[in-house]
Amino acid sequence: MKTNYQQPIGKKSLTVTAFALFSLFFGAGNLVLPPLLGFKSGNLWWLVALGFCISGALVPILGIVAHSKLQGTLFDFAKKVSPTFSVVYCYLIYAISIALPSPRTASVTHEMAIQPFWDSSSLLTSLIYFMLVFVFAVNRTKVLDALGKILTPGILIILLVIIMTTIFTLDFDFAPSHMSQPFSSGILEGYQTFDAIGAVVVGAVIIISVNIKEKSASYEEKRKLIGKAGLWAGAGLFLVYGGLILTGALFGNSFDNEITRTALLRGISTNTLGQTANLLLSILVSLACFTTAIGIVTGTSDFIKSRFNDSLLAYRITAFIGCVLGILIGQFNVGYIIDVAVPALMFIYPITIILIVLNFAPDRYASEKVFKWVVVTTILFSIPDFLGSIGLGKYVSPYVDWVPLGQYQMGWILPALIVFILGNLGKKS
């Protein structure tokens, strides 16, 4: 009797998938965030690290696991609310991606690799930077894919050496914390990684890659592979983010309190490894930023192209607009771009997190009605946080005060949870 034999997925596939996931989330722009968090948190660094890792590592990994279950695209992620809502959500996600994290890569490159060595304007840097991004986006090449496989390991090795050198050479003497709400500050700063958005946008790419490489594997085996790889990648993110926050906290007495994110990272790198290693790190970070910007521009252009009957003209116009935005916004410093991103993130991130959780949940608990009610509730209760982020907080403070967690800019969490529970209880009754 003939039997169908399926070769089990090996450890090599698990390792490759886990590293691909780690590379997907650990962008060059992300590494400038944790050290300053630790620097300001002082002796409460562990609370900040916990909050940052929840929004910067745990939620994105849940997004990948949700994708492995869904086996769809970004549109499928939100279509249970309604097709119209899903289209609007897709446009918002791509608009935010091309207008904020993409220009930020140019700003990080200028502050890390150009400003310390040459007396050049940030406008010139962003102009040359995004001219090259446009050239590579229009003329796609596999060279950058190959380069990307080298950059992440190189950056990771240098960061691990910095972390270990700091831990074993400095006394664990922390400065007092400058944060009144370290845990929630860590969660909100984790929004700036844009990793939850990355999970829903390009998570499908990982799924497609696994489907191509593991054609003979069953659906459950592929889900198990993604799940295990997600845990390994998540553990790596926890290790690096937590280590960088601890490193920043240990240098709490070594730099001026008003130091910028990029200056702190450069200072820590120089103090631990010397000027040569700092130069190498700057080069690697710049190249990694460049590949990230190209990925965002091409991804957004591909989406617009698909909405206009695969029009090549639509692709090129989108890429051009994205690069113009990059030039205009990328000339500002990293801190300014991060501040500008806050209102957009305060609105879109709660929706993204709740979509990840709902898609991750078992289908019997996440019907279309539950999707709609929970998402609408999340939007309503995240509006006060959005208004507060644009300076209109005084008009909504009477309403925020009575909402649990409202003072931490997370007033949407409990209402969304209550509606989720009530929606399922109503369905059962």
TrEMBL record:
Where does the chain cross the membrane?
A: 12-32, 44-65, 77-100, 120-138, 150-170, 190-210, 231-251, 279-301, 313-334, 340-361, 373-396, 408-426
Task: Output this protein's name.
Answer: Branched-chain amino acid transport system II carrier protein
Q: Name one GO molecular function term.
A: L-isoleucine transmembrane transporter activity
- What keywords sit in the KW lines? Amino-acid transport, Cell membrane, Membrane, Transmembrane, Transmembrane helix, Transport
Indicate the family of this protein.
Belongs to the branched chain amino acid transporter family.
State the annotated membrane topology for this chain: Multi-pass membrane protein
Name the source's superkingdom.
Bacteria
Q: GO cellular component annotations, sorted alphabetically?
A: plasma membrane
User: Which Gene Ontology biological process is one annotated for this entry?
Assistant: L-leucine transport
What is this protein's gene name? Answer: brnQ
Q: Check the record and name the Gene3D superfamilies matching this protein.
A: Amino acid/polyamine transporter I
Q: Where in the cell is it found?
A: Cell membrane
